[in-house]
């Protein structure tokens, strides 16, 4: 697994209501009990990505 951290400045998260969602990419992986945890609007927020870190779970 590769973990990539996003760094944001000057952003106050404001949750939004999700009426309906569908993620076709995940449907092929048998995630029958998957639930949406949260959702936020991200607009005009400066951000950067830190270098990815490779992790092994074996």
Task: Write a brief structural summary.
This protein is mainly β and 58 residues long. The protein has 1 helix and 4 strands, in the order E-E-H-E-E. It has one domain.
- The structural class is mainly beta
| Uncertain spans | none
User: Total helix count?
Assistant: 1
- The tally of strands reads 4
Total number of domains: 1
Describe, in plain words, how this protein is organized in 3D:
With 58 residues, the chain is mainly beta. It has one domain. It has one helix spanning 24-27; strands spanning 2-3, 6-8, 47-49, 53-54. The strands form two sheets. Strands 1-4 form a two-stranded antiparallel sheet. It has a two-stranded antiparallel sheet with strand order 2-3.
Which key terms come to mind for this protein?
58 residues, mainly beta, two-stranded antiparallel ribbon, 17% strand, flat
Outline the secondary-structure elements.
Layout: E1 2-3, E2 6-8, H1 24-27, E3 47-49, E4 53-54
Antiparallel strand pairs: 1-4, 2-3
């Amino acid at each position: 697994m590769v973990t990539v951290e996003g760094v944001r400045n000057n952003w106050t998260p404001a949750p939004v209501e999700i009426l309906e969602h569908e993620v076709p990419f995940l449907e092929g992986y048998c995630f029958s009990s998957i639930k949406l945890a949260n959702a936020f609007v991200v607009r005009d927020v400066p951000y950067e990505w830190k270098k990815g870190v490779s992790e092994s779970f074996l």
